[in-house]
Structures are given as structure tokens and as C-alpha cells.
Design goal:
Elements: H1 3-33, E1 35-46, H2 51-55, E2 62-64, E3 73-80, E4 85-89, H3 92-96, E5 102-110, E6 115-123, H4 127-131, E7 134-140, H5 148-160, E8 164-165, E9 174-179, E10 202-208, E11 215-222, H6 228-243, H7 249-259
Parallel strand pairs: 1-2, 4-6, 7-8, 7-9
Antiparallel strand pairs: 1-3, 1-5, 3-4, 5-6, 9-10, 10-11
Helix pairs in contact: 5-6, 6-7
Length: about 270
């Protein structure tokens, strides 16, 4: 082998080793620092005589802050009812968007300041999704590549074993709805299947209440027609991580890794 070839080979080998080492170190740092915190985003007022007037709150629950505030004004925090703990959030603008909701906050706890350095905030899934016993799979106007979604969903839900799968959607607690078009919230009200044109570019998954048509959870992946099956399984895995984040340390870790960085410009139907 020519000398220059040997040098190139060694350079590639060193580069790969450096990349693997960097990835391992990053994963280790993530495991040691980033945590998942669950609770309700709430609002309090620090150093304000009339919290409702000062914060513009109209009838909401705004109380004096249970922690030391760096400055007067309205503050959003995470309240954990199980531990009766109130944790401050460093990204107030982000937290404001989730005020009043039960959420998972992914971030690093600054213990001396009792503050979470927020990476991401993810709303908890509807209790109806967690309490459901049966589910049906519906593939709406699934032509060409989209036809793979139904079988892939059946396989992944069978592995999950959380829901008993039924053939009749009317007898199910939940509907796992797949389509190449965004869900319009009209599963119950529309007459017949979706008549919109189908361009198999994006795989939409929505968990729907079969009695009301309400979208309980949703996501989508723009993958083209070749990866409909794999994207279907991945979105079900994503839902499983969220549903079982309270039940399984393994799923909680997977949930944290997937959601450490917020998704950008994604319409999940929430």
C-alpha cells in the first residue's frame, strides 16, 4: 500500500475514533446532567401588592411566590404536587406558553438557586390515552405507500401490549389514525373518508377520541413514501415514551433523549 494511502487510512481511523469518543462523552454528560421533571406550570407574583392587577391575570390562580425572587413581577414555575415542591424556570417566555398545563420539563437543576435550566417543555398526554383499554387502527385514504402504515401500526402496537386492538373503531376507546394529510378534527362529523388529494410525502399520526373526534395527541414525519412503515413505528414509540415516562425509567430516559431539543415549526395537532 502506498505511503500516502496508509496516512489517509490512519487519518480516517483517528477521525472516527475522535467522533466516537465525542459522542460517548456527550451521551455521558447528558445522562449525568439532564433530568425530567413533571408538574404543573403555575404563576406567582413577587413583591406585588395586587398580583391580579399587576400580572394582567383574569381570574387565574396567581399567588405570592413560595421562593426567593430575583426581581419583582410575575414568575412562572413548576409545581410538583407529589413532592410539594416549587422549582423556578430560567426560560420564562417558554414557560408562559404552558401556563396551567401538566408538563414534563427537560433540563438541568441548579440546586443552589432551586432553578431548572430548561431545555424543553412537553405537555403530558391526555389522561384518556393512558386510561384507554382498546384501540382501533384507521388508515385514512391510504393509497400507494401510505398503505404500509396500518400493518406497521399493528405490529408496533402488538409489541407494546398496552391496548387490545379491535377491528370496529366504534367499539374502541382510541383510534390510531394515519393519513397523508393533516387531521381536520372531523372524524365523527364528516360523511365518508377524506376526499383530499393524497401526496405521499408526510405521514400524519393522530390519536383520536372515536366518540367526539377530538385529537388527543398527534405528530407527523415528512419521510416520503419509502419510509412510511418505519416512521409509523417511530411515532408510536414516541407516544409510548411519553405515556410511560411516569411508569418506566427506560422509557423516561428515551423520552428525555428524544425531546431534549424542541422540535421546530412542527404542527402536532396539540
Amino acid at each position: 500500500m502506498p505511503c500516502d494511502s496508509v496516512s489517509s487510512f490512519r487519518m480516517v481511523k483517528v477521525t472516527l475514533l475522535v467522533a466516537v469518543c465525542a459522542f460517548s462523552c456527550a451521551a455521558s454528560a447528558f445522562a449525568q446532567g439532564v433530568q425530567v421533571f413533571k408538574g404543573q406550570i403555575a404563576q406567582c407574583a413577587c413583591g406585588i401588592a395586587d398580583p391580579h392587577a399587576a400580572t394582567g391575570d383574569k381570574g387565574g390562580a396567581v399567588t405570592p411566590c413560595a421562593f426567593a425572587c430575583a426581581k419583582p413581577g410575575a414568575h412562572y414555575f413548576l409545581f410538583d404536587p407529589r413532592n410539594k415542591a416549587a422549582l423556578q424556570l430560567d426560560n420564562q417566555d417558554f414557560a408562559k406558553a404552558f401556563n396551567g398545563l401538566v408538563v414534563y420539563v427537560i433540563g438541568i437543576l441548579d440546586k443552589p438557586n432551586n432553578t431548572i435550566q430548561v431545555n424543553n417543555i412537553v405537555p403530558d398526554v391526555s389522561p384518556r390515552v393512558k386510561q384507554a383499554k382498546t384501540a382501533a387502527i384507521v388508515c385514512d385514504a391510504c393509497v400507494r405507500g401510505m398503505a404500509k402504515a396500518k400493518l406497521a401500526a399493528f405490529e408496533e402496537l402488538t409489541v407494546w401490549k398496552r391496548y387490545t386492538l379491535v377491528a370496529d373503531p366504534k367499539k374502541a376507546d382510541l383510534i390510531f389514525l394515519f393519513s397523508a394529510n393533516p387531521y381536520l378534527g372531523d372524524y365523527v362529523t364528516r360523511d365518508g373518508p377524506d376526499t383530499r388529494l393524497v401526496h405521499v410525502e408526510t405521514n400524519y399520526m393522530n390519536v383520536v377520541d372515536p366518540h367526539t373526534g377530538e385529537n388527543l395527541w398527534g405528530d407527523h414525519q415528512k419521510v416520503g413514501s419509502w419510509f412510511i412503515a418505519s416512521s409509523t413505528k417511530d411515532m408510536i414509540s414516541e407516544l409510548r415514551e411519553l405515556v410511560e415516562a411516569d411508569e418506566s425509567p427506560v422509557q423516561r430516559k428515551l423520552f428525555a433523549e428524544r425531546n431534549r431539543i424542541p422540535k421546530v415549526a412542527i404542527n402536532t395537532g396539540k
